[in-house]
Structure formats: structure tokens, C-alpha cells
Amino acid sequence: MKQVLKWGFLTGIATMWSVVFAQPTIDGTRDALYGSPIVVQDTQTGFGDSNLGQVDYANGSELDAAYAYVDMNAQVLYLFLAGNLESNFNKLEIFFDTGPGGQNRLRGDNSGVDFGGLNRMGDDGSGNGLTFDSGFEADYWIGVTGGGSPYALYANWAQLLTGGGGPGDYLGSTGAASNGILTGGNDHGIRVTINNSNTGGVEGGSGLASGNGALVTTGVELAIPFAAIGITGTGIIKVSAFINGVGHDY
């Protein structure tokens, strides 16, 4: 089963915070600046409950809570997704609805980025592609994965045009608990890192969670320039994030 977090927020609500010129520190650990979670996970994870407690390697994947901070001065969206991403190249799929148009049912003719992984989630012509909730039309996607020895985190990006065929790029790679700066790709100014040391939060299984995801303080953290995901001033940003298998097709 996929483990999903979905939420929306206004870019304008953070204007009063950003005037102090503070930004979260990108390191995979939640700063107090994020405030309260926008959404907390209520479902157990079907991808295993990690118990290693290591900053890089995890033997399970889970999403526990989601946080956002909008720096209107620097025009940067900060996201913190509390939890773990198993170090076997499981995927964290993050979709953004930031403007008019986009794709409610994911098309199969988007960018072939990440070895065609994005399109494996899309419509193969049978009408069975990944379909979002009514009112969510994805405009951009960021995919995150990690593994290997030594551990490395990798990220990819694509724009999802209403008619398909949008651009896509490999963003680059970094280490665990890094400052999020990516190397080896076209990073679009995006930074991303991970701290995989969580051993709390939700449990493994397929029912309602009894663990408190709001207590988890480590996970995947991103700093995303507005221009990289089509944010143009104030308005509603909708985000859908979920854990997927190695081939983007679980």
C-alpha cells in the first residue's frame, strides 16, 4: 500500500514570519521555525517500521507529518516531511499543484526523467494512471530516493504540462544530513537532504496508527525556489506526497 500525505496552504500566511529574515537550517532535522504540522499521519506504514536509528541507512519507509515554511522575501518554499525513506532506493514522490491547469490523472507522456519512472505512474492508454483527488491537478513533481554504499540521496524534477511533454531534469545527489546542496545535475536551485534516524512515529501495518507522527523530528527536508515549481506570489499551494517502490510502480 502507498502511504500518503496530502495538504494545502497559503503562501501569504508566511509573510509575517519572513520579515524577520529567518530560514530553516537544511539538515534533515525539523527546526522550531516550521511551527505546528500542517498534517499528521493517521495510517500505519506498509513499507516497514525502521528500527536502525542511523542518520543514513533505514530499513523501513514512513511518512509521519508534513510541515511548510514560506520565505516570501527569498521566494523559497521549505518543506519538511518527517519519517524515513528506506535505503533500498524506495521512492518519495512529491507532487505540487501551484497554478491553473496541470494533470488530475497523471499522463504517460511526461518527461522520461529517472529512467522513465515518472511515466510508469502515468496513464498507459487504458485510463488507469495515478489519479489524484478531485481539485488536485499536479503541475510539478520532485522524486527523492537513496541507497548505496556509501549512502547517497538522489533527486529528480519534472514539470507536468496539461497536455504532457513537459521538461524534466536529474537534480543531482548529496549525502545524509547534508546542507542539501546537490551536485552532478541541474538542481534548479533546489536543495534536499535526509536524516533517517527516526525510530518512532507510526507503526508497520495497514490499519490506523497509534504512534504519534507529530513527535518525529527527522526526515526529508527541501528548500525549493518559487520559480522551480511555478509559484507566482500569494495563493494556495497543494501538495501530495507518498512512498512508492523502487520502480515508481508499486
Task: List key phrases describing it.
250 residues, mainly beta, seven-stranded antiparallel beta sheet, five-stranded antiparallel beta sheet, globular
Q: How would you characterize the overall build of this protein?
A:
The protein is mainly beta and 250 residues long. Helix content is 3%, strand content 33%. It has 2 helices and 12 strands. It has helices at residues 15-18, 117-120; strands at residues 4-10, 39-40, 62-71, 76-84, 88-97, 140-147, 152-159, 168-174, 183-184, 191-194, 219-225, 236-244. The strands form 2 sheets. A 7-stranded antiparallel beta sheet has the order 1-12-5-6-7-8-9, with no helix packed on it. Strands 2-3-4-11-10 form a 5-stranded antiparallel beta sheet. The longest helix is centred in the N-terminal third of the chain and has 4 residues, at 15-18. It is globular, with a radius of gyration of 17 Å.
Kindly report how far apart the N and C termini lie: 8 Å
Radius of gyration, in angstroms, nearest whole number = 17 Å
Mean pLDDT over the residues: 93
Helical stretch count?
2
Describe the largest sheet. 7 strands, antiparallel
Shape: globular
Please give the order of strands in the largest beta sheet. 1-12-5-6-7-8-9
Find the structural class using helix and strand composition.
Answer: mainly beta
Order of helices and strands: EHEEEEHEEEEEEE
Give a count of the beta strands, DSSP E runs of length 2 or more.
12
Q: What percent of residues are in strands? A: 25-35%
Oligomer: single chain
Helical content stands at under 10%
Low-confidence stretches: 12-20
